[in-house]
Design brief:
heterodimer; A: 946 residues; five-stranded antiparallel sheet; 13 strands; B: Beta-Lactamase; Immunoglobulin-like; nine-stranded mixed sheet; 23 strands; 40% strand; globular; lipid-binding (chain B)
Chain lengths: 946, 441
């Protein structure tokens, strides 16, 4: 007997018959009837009318029948809430059944019935099941909490289920732990603010232990949860990584990918000099390659993720090019992804192989794939200069095949090659022109027209060619029309005598006969330019074009960092953040990579910091290309953005990090310094909770002017230092310093051209940095810089850029571009340029805050050889926005209590002890973000000694 | 997490529909049918997003399995789960076909209820599932049996039940390898790798602790060093000799029974095996692969209407060994009108429906050579597009492991029961098969 017969009953009056059968006395008949009902339900028929009859069958000791009835209930309870109550009793009774399988079944099903009245009754059985002696029941109950939370979050909180769930993380059974982790993670996602998944080294340790023992699915839940944790320092990160790496050998690809996610994320915290860092990099490659031998669907997921990993850390797979070669039988989605990765991995070392492969692909059947392969050849040419020539000849071969779409695609990429390597491959133009007639796609037509216009002087019959396009001007797409207009104007400027008629024709077509505003506007501009000043027109239209960039389709770095946190998930498959495809509040929490932190020791004991040498860091450290490239890519797109880029994702990270530290009361710890009757702390010290959290929203600083204390002199300015020596920047020497005057920060630069050629097209960009420093305006170098010329520029800065914690804190990585190349350097800025004008705290506040900041955040420094007295010190510091809040004389020593505020809202409190006649001062600093203390001390040193 | 799971037949009719999450509406079933199954073009991605709902699908023969979700789920996990679902169904009722699914729909619902709870995959080992999802009802179980079931389903060793007894303790190890090759027409290896599997079939009593050893280069070198230190005076050449016989494994993955942390630290493979057949490990090697066959193609276009093809195959292994089931597939253009073939060995046939000449040889010893030549007549066409010349592919089976992998030992310890490693009867077999073994022409 088979069950398929239930699918075939389609006669009328069926419901009626079923009703009769359901109420039959014979058990077998009943069961048959329920099966029929389920079959009808599956194919989409509405059998909700049978609700009471089906529920009546629930009281049975036949488990198979019971399960079927439950299945029916889950589907229809919502539409018949009143009837569903009838089932409650059975559920409650089943939850007490001696058989654990039945207890679990009851609690599992009950959670799926989304009827308010039922959920009320669910609480008691659920509470019992969460503490059941049988692990099978407990693991089912753990998931049930998540179900209940989905229906009624408040109820779950009120009933204290969340605490019970947290306790289950320490359960002895690994599967219970895994399910509890999964449930808690899901609940935590809908409450981003709550600290539900209170991850700390102890709980992490428990999870890592359970990881070794639970099922493959449980391992995925745990790894995904681990990925949300931020270790406190690099050592913890390393020890977690060490315990996660064995998962890379698991047969389940999802376990492997989730482990990769944890490793990629925590790696961010490890120093690159560490031996372990190198080991880890090596360990990551083989499992990623192995994923490519999985089933095609998984290969696709893996490839989409590898695409991200290759962009983030190209070194991992740089030697594995061959495994991405396309196989003839790969499904098309795998082929396209492999091709993408091949281009990313292409380098001088492997370009020959890659090209041979691409050429092979260009003869395949699938049109999309062939097109992408042809385009890839062009991208190789642009990426690897040495291969350009070979790429061009390959493209020419392909054009000879005369396959329509291959030819068109080839022409589009050849245009890009022309732009990357001007005056090198123009000899092929003749071949291109032969194929003019076969072009029917706008992009290819536009590309061809661009080529003809750009090289009009070398093409004898350029006017004829362009004229032929002009005939059907109105049928062309806008892209082609615009290109045609520009090309003919170019042609006219190059060969004015023969083409006057043509240019007039196109101008009138564009301005008078077109409805397209873009086209019309461009037409008018050309027209006026040509009629008023042909020389200027020439300068505008035939201006030298900037070179095009190498990689155009890289994912934007902040998005990439976010996606790395989502390895293995849908977000990494779509290459979109979850907010782009998930509805509602779920999963919209931004994730970001942890900041790189030093080992805890260095921050713990600031006393041991060398007091003499302010900075041992060389300012001309050139960061690795890979780090900066992503951030600085915008450079090629014209003038840098003057507005602040919105960086919501990274803001919170920096802020949280700087806030660290508990809030121990310091009462009694500092009696002799600031004690005394007139310094009574206000009750319930009202320290703004978000003291450090306004990081990045430094907008308020712009208004500091009004509240300024009246010191217009501006803070101390260091003499200019050489930041970028000429030999490292093809003749461009940059020296500079930072200033702060009446509330605005600027970077004073001196650019010297020590090369033999003229420099033009300057632009500047900063990498993300600790305080969000960013250029407030483009770098304005008005005239080209001729050899041996020097120009001084003041570049206004603001602090609303993207924030990323740097090491050292005041490190600033800068890229400067000119017509020759892009250069990178990094420099350290003195922290006092960030001291804002309203940094004076009132006394009460000062005292409360001082007490509120824990003792371990206090740092003490010695300032030696400073001949000034207390008055002079105070006034000198005030001009750099360090304000004296109070002054006392204790046992012949002058005590200055000072405050200052950074642009991101962090307050630093200081106590400066000066003994008359002794040139050494003692400086104690207290701040919620102890990392800044060292730099504030350096600022004191520089201000007082100069 | 997974919001729902649907199974469709090739026409797009729903066979199974199970919804786990409230955010998945009833229209989701139809959305997938309309947008994917009934879509005109070929499927461009196994993941489809329709109106903010994501569908993951896999196909088994002409059955579609689709998982649906509205959240940012772990995509790799969803696919792994779908494959697992297929495995479980196959273990219960054999081939996944429309008929079998309809015949077992009650069972499938029961399984879906068990292995996916609120969209979270649960224990899906068939060994464990079969103890309590039986379609017989579980009325008759004693209390002990019940707790044994639950502890097995949730326990650390979820893949094996206790109290297994055999009169004869026996185990079979199969080293199954597939050699993949892509060769240029000039005989240059473009890419080659072996993906291997070690499949174990065990009939062992109790809870045996097993340890598996092979000629893994890292292990051998470690040991080589150890012995070299002790015996360096007597046998200075020992490490060099063992180095030759060892192989470099690029990467390997293991069945979940293997203790991964132990492998990571000591590189030893120890485990308690499931009862019956399972895949112990998968591995991949790329170095020093023995390519069992070399294909030398020669294609000449004689005018626009004729092609001359000559293909030589050479076997490259010990003459005492025999390769079997050899098949060479030579693709022909779509406009082929007739083919004449001459081959020295085996049988060759032009199969118009497959656009290929298929040349079959039953057996071939090592270090031999054979040749086929064909003349292909072409119909003149005005199709501008050139023939893509798909690669020549080959199938074969050889009785050795092309990666060079050797099983060194498989030790069995069962401290509680009364049998030792020596009492276990062990069988080892090596089979090398062609994976994608292609030569471009």
């Amino acid at each position: 007997m088979t069950d398929s017969k239930y699918f075939t009953t389609t006669k009328k009056g069926e419901i009626f018959e079923l009703k009769a059968e359901l109420n039959s006395d014979k058990k077998e008949k009943k069961k048959e009837a329920v099966k029929k009902v389920i079959a009808s339900m599956t194919v989409g028929k509405d059998v909700s009318a049978l609700f009471p009859d089906v529920v009546n069958c629930m009281q049975t000791d036949n488990l198979e029948l019971k399960k079927l009835v439950y299945l029916y209930l889950m589907n229809y309870a919502k539409s018949q809430p009143d009837m569903a109550i009838m089932a409650v009793n059975t559920f409650v009774k089943d939850c007490e059944d001696p058989n654990p399988l039945i207890r679990a079944l009851a609690v599992r099903t009950m959670g799926c019935i989304r009827v308010d009245k039922i959920t009320e009754y669910l609480c008691e059985p659920l509470r019992k099941c969460l503490k059941d002696e049988d692990p099978y029941v407990r693991k089912t109950a753990a998931v049930c909490v998540a179900k209940l939370h989905d229906i009624n979050a408040q109820l779950v909180e009120d009933q204290g289920f969340l605490d019970t769930l947290k306790d289950l993380i320490s359960d002895s059974n690994p599967m219970v732990v895994a399910n509890a982790v999964a449930a808690l993670s899901e609940i935590a996602e809908s409450h981003p603010s709550s600290n539900l998944l209170d991850l700390n080294p102890q709980s992490i340790n428990k999870l890592l232990t359970a990881l070794n023992e639970c099922t493959e699915w449980g391992q995925i839940f745990i790894l995904d949860c681990l990925a949300n944790y931020t270790p406190k320092d690099d050592r913890e990160a390393q020890s977690i990584c060490e315990r996660v790496t064995p998962r890379l050998s698991h047969a389940n690809s999802a376990v492997v990918l989730s482990a990769v996610k944890v490793l990629m994320k925590f790696m961010e915290m490890l120093s690159k000099d560490l031996d372990y860092y190198g080991t880890l990099l090596k360990k990551l490659a083989p499992p990623l390659v192995t994923l490519l031998s999985a089933e095609p669907e998984l290969q696709y997921v893996a490839l989409r993720n590898i695409n991200l990993i290759v962009q983030k850390r190209p070194e991992i797979l740089k030697h594995e090019m061959k495994v991405f070669f396309v196989k003839y039988n790969d499904p098309i989605y795998v082929k396209l992804e492999k091709l993408d990765i091949m281009i990313r991995l292409a380098s001088q070392a492997n370009i020959a192989q890659v090209l041979a492969e691409l050429k092979e692909y260009a003869t395949e059947v699938d049109v999309d794939f062939v097109r992408k392969a042809v385009r890839a050849i062009g991208r190789c040419a642009i990426k690897v200069e040495q291969s350009a020539e070979r790429c061009v000849s390959t493209l020419l071969d392909l054009i000879q095949t005369k396959v329509n779409y291959v030819v068109q695609e080839a022409i589009v990429v050849i245009k890009d090659i022309f732009r990357k390597y001007p005056n090198k491959y123009e000899s092929v133009i003749a071949t291109l022109c032969e194929n003019l007639d076969s072009l029917d796609e706008p992009e290819a037509r536009a590309a061809m027209i661009w080529i003809v216009g750009e090289y009009a002087e070398r093409i004898d019959n350029a006017d004829e060619l362009l004229e032929s396009f002009l005939e059907g001007f109105h049928d062309e797409s806008t892209q082609v029309q615009l290109q045609l207009l520009t090309a003919i104007v170019k042609l006219f400027l190059k060969k004015p005598t023969e083409t006057q008629e043509l240019v007039q024709q196109v101008l009138s077509l564009a301005t008078q006969d077109s409805d397209n505003p873009d086209l019309r506007d461009r037409g008018y501009i050309y027209w006026r330019l040509l009629s008023t000043d042909p020389v200027a027109a020439k300068e505008v239209v035939l201006a030298e074009k900037p070179l095009i960039s190498e990689e155009t389709d890289l994912i934007e770095p902040t998005l990439l960092d976010e996606l790395i946190c989502y390895i293995g998930t849908l977000a990494s498959v779509y290459h979109k953040p979850p907010s782009a495809f998930v509805e509602g509040g779920r999963g919209v929490v931004h994730k970001s990579l942890p900041p790189r932190t030093a080992s805890s020791e260095s921050t713990e004991s600031p006393e041991t910091a060398p007091a003499g040498a302010p900075s041992s860091e060389q300012p001309d450290v050139i960061p690795t290309q890979g780090d900066l490239l992503g951030d600085l890519l915008n450079l090629d797109l014209g003038p840098p953005v003057s507005g602040p880029p919105l960086a919501t994702s990274s803001v919170q990270m920096g802020a949280v990090d700087l806030l660290g530290g508990g809030l121990d009361s310091l009462m009694g710890d500092e009696p002799e310094g600031i004690g005394g009757p007139n310094f009574v702390a206000p009750p319930a010290a009202a320290v703004p909770a978000n003291l450090g959290a306004s990081m990045g929203s430094g907008l308020s600083d712009l208004f500091d002017l009004t509240s300024g204390v009246g010191t217009l002199s501006g803070s101390y300015v260091a003499p200019k230092a050489v930041w970028l020596p000429a030999m490292k920047a093809k003749g461009l020497e940059i020296s500079g310093t930072f200033t702060r005057q009446v509330g605005s920060i600027s970077m004073d630069l001196q650019l010297t051209n020590k090369a033999l050629q003229v420099m033009t097209d300057f632009a500047i960009q900063f990498n993300r940095n600790s305080f969000g420093l960013a250029p407030a305006a483009p770098l304005q170098v008005h005239a080209p810089l001729s050899p041996n010329q020097t120009v001084e520029i003041s570049l206004p800065l603001n602090t609303v850029g993207s924030v990323m914690k740097m090491e050292p804190l005041n490190n600033l990585q800068v890229a400067v571009k000119n017509n020759i190349d892009v250069f990178y350097f990094s420099t350290l800025y003195p922290l006092h340029i960030l001291f804002v004008e309203d940094g004076k705290m009132d006394r009460q506040m000062f005292l409360a805050t001082w007490k509120d900041i824990p003792n371990e955040n206090e740092a003490q420094f010695q300032i030696r050889d400073c001949p000034l007295n207390a008055e002079a010190v105070s006034s000198r510091l005030q001009s750099s926005n360090i304000f004296t809040v109070a002054k006392r004389n204790v046992e012949g020593q002058d005590m200055l209590y000072q405050s200052l505020k950074l642009t991101n809202g962090i307050w630093v409190l200081a106590e400066l002890r000066i003994q008359p006649g002794n040139p050494s001062f003692t400086l104690s600093l207290k701040c919620r973000a102890p990392e800044v203390s060292q730099h504030v001390y350096q600022a004191y040193e520089t201000i007082l000694k100069n | 997490m997974i919001g729902g799971l649907f199974i469709y037949n090739h026409k797009g009719e729903v066979l199974i529909s199970r919804v786990y999450r409230d955010d998945i509406g009833r229209n989701a079933v139809d959305a997938f049918r309309v947008n994917v199954i009934h879509a005109r073009q070929q499927v461009r991605s196994p993941v489809t997003n329709i109106a903010r709902t994501s569908f993951f699908h896999v196909k088994r023969s002409n059955i579609w399995l689709a998982a649906v979700t509205k959240q940012n789920v772990n995509a790799a996990m969803v696919f792994e789960f779908l494959y697992k679902m297929c495995d479980v169904m196959a273990a219960y009722f054999g081939k996944i076909s429309e008929e079998n699914i309809k015949n077992n729909f009650v069972l499938i619902y029961e399984l879906l209820d068990e292995i996916l709870d609120f969209g979270y995959p649960q224990n899906s080992e068939t060994g464990a599932l079969k103890t309590f999802i039986t379609q017989q009802g579980i009325k008759s179980q004693t209390k002990e049996e019940q707790s044994q079931i639950t502890s097995q389903v949730t326990g650390q060793i979820g893949w094996r039940r206790e109290g297994i007894k055999y009169r004869r303790n026996e185990l079979f190890l199969d080293v199954l390898e597939s050699v993949n090759l892509l060769m240029s027409p000039q005989g240059q290896v473009l890419s080659a790798h072996v993906s291997g599997r070690v499949v174990m079939k065990s009939y062992l009593s109790g809870m045996p602790e097993c340890k598996f050893g092979m000629n893994d280069k890292i292990v051998i070198e470690k040991q080589g060093k150890g012995t070299a230190d002790e015996t360096s005076k007597r046998r200075p050449s020992a490490p060099a000799r063992s180095g030759k016989q060892s192989i470099a494994i690029d990467d390997c993955t293991f069945h979940q029974c293997v203790r991964l942390s132990k492998f990571d630290s000591e590189r030893s493979i120890s485990f308690i095996p499931p009862d019956g057949e399972f895949e112990l490990m998968r591995y991949r090697t790329t170095k020093d692969i023995i390519l069992p066959f070399r294909v030398i193609p020669l294609v000449r276009e004689v005018g626009r209407t004729k092609l001359e093809v000559k293909v030589v195959i050479k076997s490259n292994f010990k003459p005492s060994l025999l390769a079997q089931k050899i098949e060479v597939r030579i693709p022909t253009p779509l406009n082929t009108s007739g083919v004449q073939v001459i081959c020295m060995k085996g049988k060759a046939k032009y199969k118009a429906s497959e656009n290929a000449i298929v040349w079959k040889i039953k057996r071939m010893a090592g270090m031999k050579e054979s040749q086929i030549s064909a003349e292909i007549e072409l119909l003149p066409t005005n199709d501008k597009k050139k023939w893509a010349r798909p690669p020549i592919s080959m199938n074969f089976e050889v009785p050795f492991a092309p990666s060079g992998l050797k099983v060194r030992y498989l030790k069995v310890f069962e401290p509680k029961l009364n049998y030792s490693d020596h009492d276990v009867i062990k069988w080892v077999r090596y089979i090398g098969r062609s994976g994608i073994y292609e030569t471009r022409c």
